[in-house]
Amino acid sequence: MLIGGNKEQVIANMKLAAERGDLNCKVETGDPVLSQEEREKIVRHYLDNYKTFGYRFCNVCARALTDTATRCLNRNTRIEGLENIKEIHGGAIVTSNHFSPLDNTAVRKALNQAGYRRLFIVSQETNLAMKGWIGFLMNHEDIIPLVNHSEYLRKYFGPMIRERLKHGDAILIYPEQEMWFHYRKPRPPKRGAYYYAAANHVPIISCFVEIRDLPGKENEEFHKTWYVMHILKPIYPDPDRSARENSREMMRQDYQQKVAAYEQAYGKTLTYDFKSDDIAGWIPPEENAL
């Protein structure tokens, strides 16, 4: 299932970004653009609403919708490597490649099979401004909004992460930051996810989603696809290292594992030279014209 309209400009943006080595930049078009005042207002509203009865009711509804979507969208998704996390029973930070607004459902399916009842997702605050059913889910699902502001990170974000981890929940943090639509390759991670794992003494559940093409068309731009969710070896903080030292080493290990998973899945060495096959299911315009 694809979300959004024509992806020609998005793919062009990805190609340009890959060519200049800017692998964590925003490439999507049409995302909400908010001023600093609007960002602060929308997050204040979320925080004020977070513990109300109305939010809790909507949260139950949103989680039911997400669970239904997870089952429907991942009927053919194959999970490999569950045995790698069979000894993890408490809070954990989950990392995965980010290529679709719906890729978290594959992660959710895997974590459900591992015994986790809930999956919290760290999401940029601008996503709270989305409209329609996606906006409803963003504002009422198990979302932890991220605002790049030191006071917010210290006063709200860090405690929310800590609370969920102490409760034994899994938290998905996309270390690649921005979504690159149907991009097969793992991109270099940023350090935040690993810092919060190290600071809270919890493991990283390292995941990589392989995207395989199907012969049938989803639309004129894309073939249908299906997923193989690879759960890789968990990464633990070293108790003799600082959170900063651990975060750097955990980030290095996680990226190394994802690169190895990519190379094994697709049978090729990872480079960031852009090719049309980097975009799963894509039918380039010249092929469409044939």
Fold and architecture overview:
- The chain has 9 helices and 7 strands; from the N terminus they run H-H-H-E-E-H-E-H-E-H-E-H-E-E-H-H.
- The chain has a 7-stranded mixed beta sheet with strand order 1-7-6-2-5-3-4, with helices on both faces.
- The protein is of the alpha/beta class and 290 residues long.
- Helix 3 (53-73) packs across helix 4 and helix 7 crosses helix 8.
Count of DSSP strands: 7
Beta-strand content: 5-15%
Tell the overall outline: globular
Contiguous helical run count: 9
- H and E string: HHHEEHEHEHEHEEHH
The Cα radius of gyration reads 19 Å
Estimated helix fraction? 40-55%
How would you write the strand order of the largest sheet? 1-7-6-2-5-3-4
Structural class from helices and strands? alpha/beta
Weakly predicted, low-confidence segments: none
Major sheet summary line? 7 strands, mixed
What's the mean pLDDT score?
93
Summary tags:
single chain; 290 residues; alpha/beta; 7 strands; 41% helix
Task: Describe how the helices and strands are arranged.
Layout: H1 8-19, H2 36-49, H3 53-73, E1 78-80, E2 92-95, H4 104-113, E3 119-124, H5 132-140, E4 143-146, H6 150-166, E5 170-172, H7 192-199, E6 204-217, E7 223-231, H8 243-266, H9 285-288
Parallel strand pairs: 1-7, 2-5, 2-6, 3-4, 3-5
Antiparallel strand pairs: 6-7
Helix pairs in contact: 3-4, 7-8
